[in-house]
Design brief:
By secondary structure, the chain is α/β, with parallel strands linked by helices. It has helices spanning 3-15, 27-72, 78-124, 134-151, 165-172, 174-191, 216-231, 259-275, 286-305, 349-354, 358-380, 392-396, 400-411, 426-429, 431-443, 475-480, 485-501, 513-521, 538-553, and strands at residues 154-162, 197-202, 205-213, 234-236, 239-241, 245-252, 280-283, 311-320, 326-337, 341-343, 385-389, 418-423, 447-453, 470-473, 504-507, 526-527. The chain has an eight-stranded mixed beta barrel, surrounded by four helices. A five-stranded mixed sheet has the order 2-3-1-6-7, with helices on both faces. The radius of gyration is 41 Å and the shape is elongated.
Length: 554
């Protein structure tokens, strides 16, 4: 029934009493005729509909009574007027009561529908970015693969992870991090087609597939666009932020035809991209599966290695260039596993950081190095300095200064004999906190050096605030300075810069006499490298040290 017919029916119902001989009708029938439309509209259309009907009924009832008085010359008593008033009040009261009840029920039903709709949306979408979630993505991927099999086209599955995103969350807050994730998702969406699908895997990971591609080159063009778009600055709260990404790629049908295999393969390729330094993309190949298997095996053995005393320290001499005197050693960790053999630090240090073992391992290295330095100094009757590398995550531990203090107290090594080496990147992550920690360490009498200087991203202007003693020039520059003018100029500049700041300089990776002579011409103070000695176990250091003393004094 349309609204016009509905209102026409109501008015017709109210006009019925005009055609009735009310003297012959019961009062109950008259009341029912006037009240029924208000009940009916209130029941179906709520308070508003019920009141409309009640007011129309009151108006028509008044007209009806007016006709009775004017044309029939009926005399009305107070009882009649009171009856009309009561009928009107009852009509309005019924409309309000039923209308409100109906409105409330409809409101609750609408709210329930909204909740159900929201729950359905949340079941298929990411709450932060509004992108499809993993479940939604998997269903869309299955459909895309079925279509690709019919059209003989390619489907590329991409696993994307933001590099160093945790640093942004930790240093700038989750509000900035969340906004960055939203902006990244919008930027990726602008580089892909409408029929492609982008989803948020969780955290700072995204997963997407590209459809309708006929060649690998076409896929690479899109992947490159995504990668480059993320490298452009993001403006949040009037500040610019930069971030990079690591992307893994698998292709249907080249790498397989099963959707979950393709996702896993893209994930593996992304992990390899991360391991290779990040800020790039990797295509999946079958060799990666074995590489990941080896990593898992290393991780399993690494978790047991400390308890099984599989770690040892080797020591490489630190040499004064002017007279060739050995004045200290750098402690370098080695891992010898019964199943895997000797594993270089480059293969397990980053893994130890990732699985949360680095603090425990770093504390062991620090304590072992201090014990050996104390013993060595006692035997040689000379205070020998020991240099220990400190991992980025280890340095960021809240109680790092207290741990160093406890180790020195326990081993009884004088603080001036300990030098802690931090990387250039560590010194920039949170400059105020870094300065506070370094000042605390220096007040204890510990020396501080910046390791691998020149390979990080620090600003030279920060050097004047850092309470450090030494800059260590990275071996890559030292090894190339004879053949590369830029590396040569960089080494000379770092030495000059360090001297102007009052810092010592140690050149790492010195392997030839020619390199040593060039460093002397630059007035470099100290060096280490295979020219002087390979890293040695402690038992072999005594002979080397005694021979060096005789050579220097001769």
């Amino acid at each position: 029934m349309t609204i016009n017919k509905r209102w026409f029916t109501i008015i017709l119902i109210y006009l019925i009493p005009l055609f009735l001989d009310q003297t012959n009708q019961s009062e109950e029938l008259i009341w029912l005729i006037y009240i029924f439309p208000a009940v009916w509209l209130a029941f179906f259309y709520g308070l508003k509909g019920g009141l409309h009907a009640a007011f129309i009924g009151t108006l028509i009832h008044g007209i009806n009574e007016f006709i009775e008085i004017v044309y029939k010359h009926d005399a009305y008593s107070m009882k009649d007027i009171w009856s009309i008033t009561i009928l009107t009040l009852v009509n309005i009261t019924v409309a309000i009561t039923i209308g409100r009840l109906v409105d409330q029920l409809k409101s609750e039903q609408l709210s329930l529908q909204k909740v159900i709709a929201k729950m359905e949306y949340m079941a298929y979408h990411d709450y932060l970015t509004g992108l499809p979630n993993r479940w939604n993505f998997e269903m869309n991927l299955k459909t895309a693969l079925e279509k690709a099999s019919r059209t003989n086209s390619l489907v590329a599955v991409l696993f994307l992870d933001l590099d160093r995103f945790k640093l942004i969350n930790d240093s700038l807050g989750h509000a900035v991090g969340d906004q960055l994730l939203k902006d990244v998702s919008k930027r990726i969406q602008l580089t892909i087609k409408e029929e492609d699908c982008l989803a948020r895997q969780g955290g700072d990971e995204f997963i997407l597939f590209l459809t309708g591609c006929s060649t690998k080159k076409e896929i690479e063009s899109i992947v490159s666009s995504i990668h480059q778009s993320i490298q452009l600055p993001f403006k949040i709260r009037r500040q610019e932020y930069f971030i990079s990404s690591s992307i893994g790629i698998s292709i249907y049908p080249t790498n397989g035809s099963v959707w979950d295999d393709l996702i896993q393969q893209a994930d593996i390729a992304m992990y390899i991209a991360k391991e290779n330094g990040g800020n790039g993309y990797q295509w999946y190949n079958s060799d990666m599966q074995q590489e990941i298997h080896n990593m898992v095996k290393i991780e399993t053995q690494l978790r047991k290695a400390l308890k099984q005393n599989e770690f040892t320290l080797n020591y490489q001499p630190l040499v004064d260039i002017k007279d060739g005197r050995i004045f200290g050693f750098e402690a370098l960790i080695r891992w010898n596993n019964a199943d895997l053999g000797i594993i270089p630090p480059s293969d397990f240090i980053s893994l130890a950081e990732e699985i949360g073992m680095i603090s425990q391992l770093g504390e062991w290295v620090l304590k072992e190095a201090c014990i050996k330095a104390k013993t060595f100094s006692k035997i040689c009757r000379e205070p020998i300095q020991i240099a220990v590398n400190i991992s980025s995550k280890q340095f960021q531990e809240e109680n790092f200064v207290e741990i160093v203090q406890h180790v020195l107290s326990e081993t009884k090594l004088p603080p001036f004999q300990l030098e802690l080496e931090i990387t250039e990147t560590v010194s920039m992550d949170n400059i105020d906190l870094v300065i506070a920690k370094l000042n605390s360490l220096k007040e204890m009498g510990i020396s501080i050096s910046i390791d691998d200087f020149g390979t990080g991203y620090s600003s030279i202007s920060y050097l004047k605030y850092l309470p450090v003693n030494t800059l260590k020039i990275d071996r890559s520059f030292v090894q190339n300075m004879l053949n590369n003018k830029k590396d040569r100029a960089l080494v000379e500049s770092v030495i000059s810069l360090a001297k102007s700041f009052g810092f010592n300089v140690i050149a790492e990776g010195v392997e030839t006499e020619e390199q040593l002579e060039l460093l002397k011409s630059f007035d470099c103070g100290y060096a280490q490298g295979y020219l002087f000695s390979a890293p040695l176990p402690m038992k072999d250091l005594y002979k080397l040290f005694e021979e060096n003393k005789k050579k220097v004094s001769a």
